[in-house]
Specification:
2 domains; globular; Aspartate Aminotransferase, domain 2; single chain; 12% strand; 3-stranded antiparallel beta sheet; Aspartate Aminotransferase, domain 1
């Protein structure tokens, strides 16, 4: 879809970062009926709706098993518990990610090993991963950040060489593809989140694990329910992390629409590129790159994240806020700079690319249902900001 840029827009309507009403509104009656069916059934936790969702997502992701749990954060924790992670073990993670990627390692008493990222995709840099391997390394947790898969071919090769488990943090990347395979099937275990803002979001917390390893799947199911099998007989010490049937019912209604919503996100990304090209991309701004474009891959655009250099990111965000245009910074403080991880040393001693990203990234609206006029308004507002900034510097 070819878009026409405009240097100004007459609309002053707010442009939200995300509008869940546009996604959920057309499905209200279907969701209400699904809720009512669960209410009548009395099966509120790990009921038939959960089984149905697990079967559908295993098929969708291309794995033998999918195991529902209470959140994406718990999915990561359960994955590490399933491999018997213990104090003294090391887990390689990116610092440029949501907190749960690292906190799950901390909770089990293992050592977090932060490594730097690729400057284009914001995903783990395989060269940095290879350099951080030690005899104590038990797992690597690549994050498919913003909806684009990490370089799993290189990461899996490193892991295979050292007999290390690969756990995909695919919380932002359901349906993303690499080499013709979907996220969640690219490592030993995949971890998903159904937080409402995700591409497939529920109406509360929820998560899912995927694997094609029968033994791991069995252990994950055991661990999510207090290690109990049969009832009141505990084989191991697990946690209480069960997906409730109401959330599963919502997700079962929404899953058939996921690929269409993903298509719309991709079209919005292309349209941004066209609009910025037509308007003239500011010199201090870099658009995101879909490295899988034209190959057997798919970016699912959970976020449309640009880079804003020259120390102007925060001022641009303030300008957009003044224009009632939503934006967000994912993430303003890297995990290795968080107070709670002050004692964690970084591999190689420096995460310069991560720190630069944290100073420059800004995510713009890209949700399904975003209209051309809204994108034109976003691009025009950004153009106005840089034009004004350039004038001020020249004065």
């Amino acid at each position: 879809m070819k878009a026409t840029a405009t240097s100004a827009t007459t609309s002053t309507e707010p442009v939200p970062l995300l509008d869940l009403a546009r996604e959920n509104g057309p499905l209200e009656a279907e969701i209400a009926a699904a809720f009512d069916a669960v209410r009548r059934s009395g099966s509120f936790v790990l009921g038939p709706e959960v089984t149905r969702l697990e079967e559908a997502l295993a098929q969708y992701c291309g794995t033998k098993h999918a195991i529902g749990c209470a959140s994406g954060s718990d999915a990561l924790l359960l994955a590490l518990m399933a491999i018997d992670l213990a104090p003294g073990d090391e887990v390689i993670v990116p610092s440029f990610s949501f907190f749960a990627t690292a906190s799950c390692v901390w909770r089990l008493g293992a050592k977090i090993v932060f490594v730097d990222i690729d400057p284009v995709t914001f995903n783990l840099d395989p060269a940095q991963v290879a350099a951080a391997i030690t005899p104590a390394t038990r797992a690597i947790v690549p994050v498919h950040l913003f909806g684009q898969c990490a370089d799993m071919e290189a990461i899996n090769a490193i892991a295979a060489q050292h007999d290390i488990t690969v756990i995909e943090d695919a919380a932002q990347a359901i349906g993303a593809e690499l080499g013709g395979r979907r996220s969640g099937s690219l490592g030993d275990i995949g971890c998903f989140s159904f937080y409402p803002t995700k591409n497939l979001g529920g109406m509360g917390d929820g998560g899912m694990l995927t694997t094609s390893d029968d033994a791991l799947a069995d252990k994950l199911r055991l661990l999510r329910g207090h290690g109990m099998r049969p009832r009141y007989y505990h084989q191991v010490v697990g946690i209480n992390s069960r997906l409730d049937s109401l959330q599963a019912a919502v997700l079962n209604v929404k899953l058939p629409h996921l690929d269409d919503w993903t298509r719309q996100r991709g079209e919005n990304a292309v349209r941004y590129a066209e609009l910025f090209a037509a308007a003239g991309l500011p010199a201090d701004m870099v658009l995101p790159v879909d490295i899988a474009a034209g190959s057997a891959g798919r970016h699912v655009w959970n976020q449309y994240t640009v880079r804003v250099g020259g120390g102007q990111r925060d001022a641009l965000r303030a300008h957009l806020r003044g224009e009632s245009i939503g934006s967000e910074i994912y993430y303003p403080v890297p995990l290795h700079r968080q107070a709670c991880f002050a004692s964690v040393a970084t591999a190689g001693g420096s995460l310069s690319i991560t720190e630069q990203a944290a100073e420059e990234v800004l995510s713009l609206p890209i949700f399904p249902g975003l209209e051309l006029t809204e994108q034109q308004r976003v691009v025009a507002a950004i153009g106005d900001f840089f034009a004004s900034s350039q004038t001020e510097r020249a004065a």
